[in-house]
Structure of DUF3243 domain-containing protein:
Amino acid sequence: MELGHNWHKWKEIMGGAVGLGERVGMDKETINNVAYRLGSFFANNFDPANQEQRLMKELWDEGNEEEKKTLASLMARVSHKASIRH
């Protein structure tokens, strides 16, 4: 199974990246800026692989810049929590 097709595995890996950022001293604003840039990159370069990713892309495409930053911040937090539980 490809990583992109498994939503939970994708969240776990993204959460691990957030945790790594925290461990190397990145502050929340920097982590959120990186999440926003990654969100833009994924939205512009990849087709969604599952229903959850399709929903995220629809929300991303519909949102203005501030809403996209909020969505990226929320995904970083949700992903980080998911990685901590595992």
In short: The mean pLDDT is 87. Residues 3-85 form one domain. The CA atoms of residues 7 and 51 lie 9 Å apart.
